[in-house]
Amino acid sequence: MHEKTSWQEDTALERYQMITPLLDDDIDEAERLRRRKKISEDNGISERTLYRYEKSYRESGFTGLKPADRTKLRSKKLPENFDELLSEAIQLKREVPKRSVSMMIDILEMEKRVAPGVLKRSTLQDHLFAAGYGRKQMNQYVEARNSSSKRFCKPHRMMLVQGDIKYGIYLPIGRHGAKRRTYLSSAIDDHSRYILYSHYYDSQEGSVVEDTFRHVIQDYGAFDKAYFDNGHQYTARQLKFTLARLGIKVSWAPVRSGKSKGKIEKFHQVVDAFQREADLKKLKTLDELNRLWDIYLEDAYQNDAHDGICEYYESLNCPVPEEGITPQQEFNRDTRALTFLDVTTVAEAFLHHEERLVDKGACISFQGRKYETKPSLIGYKVGISYDPAAPEKITVTHPTTGAFTAEPLKIGSFCDKSPTLPVSMQEAKPETSRYLDALEKKHQENRQLKTDALSFAGYGKEADKDV
Questions:
Q1: Which of the pair, 194 or 42, is modelled with greater confidence?
Q2: Angle, nearest 10°, between helix axes 7-19 and 29-43?
C-alpha cells in the first residue's frame, strides 16, 4: 500500500537529507563552510537558507524543518497573479538550474510581470521548494579516498550502525506446508562488531528492517548514524522518517561497493556457517530457527575473539591480549555512555502515517476493514497513525477533533433492511419517554400551584370572619 505523507514532512525530509553533511560534529568550521557552499551550488539554494535549516534542526529537531502549512503560506499578501509568477519562476529555474531566486525576481520585474519589491525572495523560494524546484537530488557522501583506503572504524560504540538483509534457509512455512525462503535482518555496531539485533523473518519487506531497528533502539538506545545499502527496504520513506524523527543520520553505500560494507559482509560468513548446520536439522518453524540462531550467535560470534578488532588496535600501535578481544567485550568496555530514549518517543517515531477520507457513514477504510470516526468528520480527510506490528489500533487526527482511537465497525452476519450503523449514529433505545415523564412532572407542579392558591383564598375568608 502506498503511504501518503504530508507535503510538510516530505519537505522536512528533503531539507534534512540536504543538511546531513553539515551536522557532523567531527568537522571544523572551515570544512562546514566548504560543504555548505558546495550544497548551495548543487541545489540552487542560498547558504543563508542552509544555515537557517541547520539552526532550526539543532533547536527543534526534525519538526523544526517542516515548513508552515500551505494554507498559511497562501494567506500572506501575495500578488493576484502569483500562480502565474510561480509558473514563470519554475520555467526560469528549468532553463538555468543554478539561477538564484534573486535573479529570477529581477527578471520577472524587468519583464514587467510584477512591480519591484512586491515579490519577496523568501516567499518565492519557499513555494519553489514546495513545488519540487529549487532542490536537486544529491549524493549524501562522495568517495573521498581511493578504493585501497576505504577501510574505516569508528572510535566508539553506537557512533555508526550498519544494517543488511541476507537470504536464509528454506522452511515449510508456506501455504499447505510449502517451502518458503527465510530472510535474516541484522544490525551491527561498527566499532565493536557487536550484533545489536539479528532475526529471521518470512519476508524481506520494509517492516522487517523497521522491526530490527526498533529492537536496537529499545535495547541499546539511540545511535549517531546508520549506514545502509541501496535496497528498497533501506531507502523506504518510512524508515527515513522514523530515523529522522529520532535525530539519527543516514547514509547509503555507493552502488557495487562491497568494501564499504565489509564488517557486516564478514559477519555474513558466520551466518553461512550456521545455515549449513541448520539445514541438517530439518527445522519446521521460524521459532525453531531463531532459537538455534540466538544460541549460535552468542556462543560462536559475540563471545568469540574477532580478528578485525585486533587489527584495529594493532593499527593504532595498542597492545592486544593474546586471547584476543570479542565483540561482546569490546562493546561492554567502551567508555561511551548509551543514550536511551523515552519509550513513548520511540513508539511514536515508528508509527506509520497515512490519510483517509471519511465516508457518509462517518467511517474510514483501512486494510480491508471499516473503522468508525465521528459524524462531524463526514466528507473530510483525516490523518491516521498506526503501529505496523499492531495495525488493528488506529489513531485518527483532525484539527477540529484532535486525536482519538477509531474502533472497528461491527457488521452483522446477515444482510437485512436495517444495516448496522456506527455507534455514534445509531438510534438510542430509551427505557421510557422523557417527554411524557417531563409533561407529567409539569402537570403535577401545576396542580400543586392551584391547590396552594385555593388554600390561600380560603384562609383569607376565614380571616374576614374573625374581624
A1: 194
A2: 130
* Domain co-membership, 49 together with 170: no
Verify that 280 and 227 share a domain, yes or no. yes
Alpha-carbon distance of 236 to 250, in angstroms, equals 12
Among candidate residues 340, 371, 388, the one where a domain is terminated: 340
pLDDT at 201 over 80: yes
* Total count of domains within the chain: 3
Which pLDDT score is estimated for 61? 85
Is 305 exposed, middle or buried (CB count within 10 Å of its CB: 0-12, 13-18, 19+)? middle
CA 377 to CA 4: how far, in whole Å?
A: 19
Residue 445: pLDDT above 50?
yes
Looking at the fold, whether 127 and 169 belong to one and the same domain comes out as: no
Nearest to 340 by CA among 219, 212, 226: 219
- For residue 317, count CB atoms less than 10 angstroms from its CB and return exposed for 0-12, middle for 13-18, buried for 19 or more: exposed
Q: How high is the pLDDT of residue 466?
A: 54
Structural domain contains residue 432 = no
191: domain CATH number is 3.30.420.10
Residue 311 CB contacts under 8 Å (≥ 6 apart), including other chains: none
- Residue range(s) defining the domain that contains residue 376: 351-425
Say whether both 362 and 264 belong to one domain: no
Does residue 57 sit in the same domain as residue 158?
no
In a domain, 395, yes or no: yes
For residue 167, what is its C-alpha cell? 537470504
pTM, full prediction? 0.59
**Highest-confidence segment of 267-281, 305-319, 342-356, 438-452:** 267-281
Tell me, what DSSP letter sits at residue 119? S
How far CA 382 is from CA of 62, 119, 373, 397, 410, in Å, comes to 22, 34, 10, 6, 21
Residue 256 confidence (pLDDT) above 90: no
What is the per-residue pLDDT for 143? Answer: 39
- Which domain CATH number covers 391? 2.40.50
Average pLDDT over residues 371-397: 86
Instruction: Tell me the one-letter amino acid at 280.
Output: L
The domain boundary residue, chosen from 131, 159, 176: 131
Q: What is the pLDDT of residue 43?
A: 82
